[in-house]
């Protein structure tokens, strides 16, 4: 064997942390030729090291970042959340998956090949809890219900119809697939069904809030999110195709002033003062939520308090200066949560494999019945109410399924400028109500 081949085997042994074997390799003669005994030993050594390298996966006893290395685990997961933002916007696969799923996939990969401890770590669970709890009030500080109801116009009714459609579809989906979900996930089956209901009325923040409140296992949380995102990959292109070529619903309204007001909010600077104020407010709301609701009811109570504060606090002096900062920090925390959701590694893959069929059946019913109800509303009522024209129904459906960001993206891509700001407002309404709808759904079916 050539000298460079021996160096390569030596490097492999270093990478797999087999120091004694690496030292043994260095004791071999460094001459170009070996006797038969050394040659046989080196071949056997190379065969063993190759086998060890290929089996470095879930069962590896030597993760690069040990389970007790708190800052190492945090650094890896924060890096994953940051990298997902780049890959989710700059690469074709990343744009297809979206930044949240990209973050999950990256951390899943690191745990599966032995960079992170397979099965999760205490540091990852601590980061998951912290990011989830902070994200809830931060994102909901934009949910000003008074402002939304005044400014979103007929789209409010469209969104309520879309939300009821998701709720009805979830009941039918559970009736059809509930026994299969329970067999695959145990008690987590109903929890994930409720969380998917919340996600498809509000957004990801509601999904994780319901999972946290009802104590879903991390692997079940990741499995539900993975399968739902597969359906989202089909849903959003379909809505874009349906929206193509349809004109804006309004041309002579005061939408310009509404958009300028919204732009003024979005352009508020992110400063040290705004960050300090926002974090202080989020901490106080979380503390009050835990004091009033206890550990299990902390997030629902915090949601209620945050929405009430966002709706009734002075808009100009208090809310507008902190809303951009709160949204920015909240999204950062949400991506950290998605990164931690993939940290169990191959355990997530096993959960997805076990629950793929029932989750697919449940979500097929959810998406199909949601769309069917909206289509029936259009056929029966579009001549009687402007809330049932296809433009508003498509934006309302997008706000329910994907949240305000996807709704405004659809409105802007289709050229529906009059629906851009209302789509964000109704999306915030979804954030405000989805968690409570899901908890009621779970309570009703868990009897």
From TrEMBL:
Highest taxon listed in the record's lineage: Eukaryota
The keyword Transmembrane helix is annotated on this UniProt entry: yes
Transmembrane portions of the chain: 96-117, 123-143, 155-177, 189-209, 221-243, 297-314, 326-347, 359-381, 393-411, 423-445
Pfam families, A to Z: DUF819 (PF05684)
Keywords annotated in UniProt: Membrane, Signal, Transmembrane, Transmembrane helix
InterPro entries, alphabetized: DUF819
Signal peptide: 1-24
Protein name: DUF819 domain-containing protein
Organism of this sequence: Fistulifera solaris (Oleaginous diatom)
Upper lineage: Eukaryota, Sar, Stramenopiles, Ochrophyta, Bacillariophyta
